[in-house]
Amino acid sequence: MISYNKYPQNLFSLYALENQTFDHSKMEVIFVDDASTDETYTIKNQSFNFPFKYIQCNTNVGRSKTKNIGIEEAKGEILIFIDSEMILDPDFVEQHFLLHQTEKKLVVAGCLQHYGTFTVYEPGFNKRQRRRLLALIKKKRKWIPRERRVSFRKRIENKTTDKFPLFTKEQIQKAQYKVLAFHEPVFREIIEFFGLELKDYTMPWKFVITRNVSLKKSLIEAVGPFYEGFQGHGCEDWEFGYRLYKYGAKIIEYPNVCVYHQEHPRSKENSKENIKNYLTFLNQHPNFDVGALSLAWLKKSFFEVNEIITEYYRISEESPQMITYMTKGFNALFNSVLNNLYEGRKVTNLLSVSGIENDLEWKEQIFKERENLTNENKGTKLVETLDYLLNL
User: H-helix or E-strand containing 307?
Assistant: First the structure.
C-alpha cells in the first residue's frame, strides 16, 4: 500500500484487511507513506492482527519510488498492490493467492467489480460527489439511523469545512461501507467483448492498475521495477504493465471479488499530468501500439484503437517493408497529438507540426506507402487513420 494524504481512508482500508480469510501469519502488509502532511503518521502506532510494516519517506518521492520501496521490503512470493484508500472483500487475498498457484507469469486485475464508496466526507468534494453522497444517504435511509442521517445531510448541504468520518472502525469491519457504495466498473465493455482473459485485445497492459492487482515477485525481477521518471499522477502502472505484456505475462480480469474505492477530492491537474506522463511512456517505448492510444484522447474508442493496432501488427508480420516510413510517420504524429493536448493547443496541421512537411523524401515515401496499401487493399484502418490525422 502506498499513501499520500489519504487519512483516515487509509486507516479504514487497514481495518478492513483484518477481516481477510487468508492465514494472517502467511501474509504481510507493507505501508509506504510518501511524506504525508496529514495524520497518516499516527498509523505507525496502530496494532493490527497481521504482520504490518510502516515505512515513512522523509520527502515526497512519488508513486513509482514508493512502490519500488515496498517491493524491496516485501518478503513474499506473491505481491498484491492496492491503493491506500481501497477496501477489499474478505476473501480477496485468498482468491488471488489460489489463482497464482497454477500460473507462473500471471497478472490478475480487478476492474469489473470495482465500486466507489463514501466513508469520509471531505469539503473538497466536487458537486457531483456531494450530489451522489446525498442521493445515497436518501436512497439508503432505512440502513442509516435517522439521527446520523439528519446530521450528515445538514453538514453536507451546509458545505461544512470540516472533514468527518461517516463510519467507525466497528462499522467498517462489519462492511457497512457497502451502504454508501455504488458500482463503478472499469473497462466493462472491453471485458464483455474480449472476455476475462482479454483474448485478441492488444492493450491488456491497460488493466495493470495498482489500485488492485497481483503478480509474483519473480515477474517484477524479470521486467524491472516501476520507472521513476514520471512526474505526478499517471502512467507508471501502464508502463510497468506494458513491460509485463511484452515479457509474455498473461494479464487477466478476475471478477469474483469486489473492491471498494473510498471517495476523496479529485485533482484537476491529473488530466494534464496524465498526458505529460503518457508522452514519457511513449518516449520510453516508441512503439505503434503505445502511440496509437493517443487516438483515445481524440475520442476514438478503445475498440477502434484495437482494430488499428491489430491491423498494423498483421501488416508488420506479413509485409513490414510496406509501412517502413508510415511507422516512423505515425510515431511523429502521435507525439504531436499528445504535445498539442498537453500544451492546450488545438490538434491540427499535424503534417507541419510533426516535421513531416519539411522532410520531402519522408513525406513522399509515406504517401507512396499509403497508395500501395490502398492499391493492394491492405491496411484500410491504417490508411483511414493516417488520413484522419492529416485532415484534423
Answer: helix 302-318
